UniProtKB/TrEMBL annotation:
Recorded GO MF terms: carbonate dehydratase activity; zinc ion binding
Taxonomic path: Bacteria, Bacillati, Actinomycetota, Actinomycetes, Micrococcales
Swiss-Prot/TrEMBL catalytic activity: hydrogencarbonate + H(+) = CO2 + H2O
PANTHER family linked: CARBONIC ANHYDRASE, CARBONIC ANHYDRASE 2
Pfam families: Pro_CA
SUPFAM superfamilies according to UniProt: beta-carbonic anhydrase, cab
Cofactors named for this entry: Zn(2+)
Gene3D superfamilies: Carbonic anhydrase
Protein's name in the database: carbonic anhydrase
Recorded family membership: Belongs to the beta-class carbonic anhydrase family.
Enzyme Commission code: 4.2.1.1
Cofactor: how bound: Binds 1 zinc ion per subunit.
Functional description taken from the UniProt entry: Catalyzes the reversible hydration of carbon dioxide to form bicarbonate.
């Protein structure tokens, strides 16, 4: 594993190498010892930001075989973007110079499933879950416009693509970093059954 990937392409390669180890059962569990902990006391230099779903089955550091100080992680149910999530990602770009932003969705997503149900039935969930569903609804509708028979997993992929695109559209800080090739934004869908993370969206130079 590279000590500290500097470019989007290096960060992407390191991330995918880690996922391959996780899938094959050969995880290295890097950067998880006391020496690493001590080395991070004064500052941090994560090489990837992961904006993912809160689902307990896709713990970011585990599925990409990462350790302390490697990943700056922001998670909400259904990786829904709000101002605090966007501000957290902008912080990583502006203050930590993180070269790769990953939007991470997964199959059988409960938040997307709830949104599909609300669209199908016209019944909105109670409480603040409604806010999640309202923010995911445009992705579900876009998926249905493409194919009336869209599955939840099709909708997840569409939602990952739309979320990733929205980060660049809504944030001048992220857009500027991508334009200057300092940062790339990618969208991945995670498969619960085998642990693989598949690329479904990219904006920036991730191949060296």
């Amino acid at each position: 594993m590279a000590m500290h990937p500097q470019t989007p392409a290096q960060a992407w390669e390191t991330l995918m190498d880690g996922n391959a180890r996780f899938v094959s059962g050969t995880s290295n569990h890097p950067n998880q010892d006391a020496a690493r902990r001590t080395s991070l006391l004064s500052d941090q230099h994560p090489f990837v930001m992961i904006f993912g779903c809160s689902d307990s089955r896709l713990a970011a550091e585990i599925i990409f075989d990462l350790g302390l100080g490697d990943a700056f992680v922001v998670r909400t149910a259904g990786h829904v973007v709000d101002n605090t999530a966007l501000g957290s990602l902008e912080y990583g770009v502006e203050y930590l110079d993180v070269p790769l932003i990953v939007v991470l969705g997964h199959d059988s997503c409960g938040a997307v499933t709830a949104t599909k149900s609300a669209v199908d039935t016209g019944k909105m969930p109670a409480g603040f879950v409604r806010d999640l569903v309202e923010r995911i609804t445009p992705s579900v509708l876009a998926s249905l416009r493409k194919d009336q028979g869209s599955s939840v997993n099709d909708m997840v992929e569409e939602h990952v693509k739309q979320t990733a695109a929205r980060l660049v559209e809504n944030s001048p800080i992220i857009a500027s970093a991508v334009a200057r090739q300092r940062t790339a934004v990618v969208g991945l869908t995670y498969r619960l059954n085998d642990g693989t993370a598949d690329l479904v969206y990219s904006n920036g130079h991730i191949h060296g």
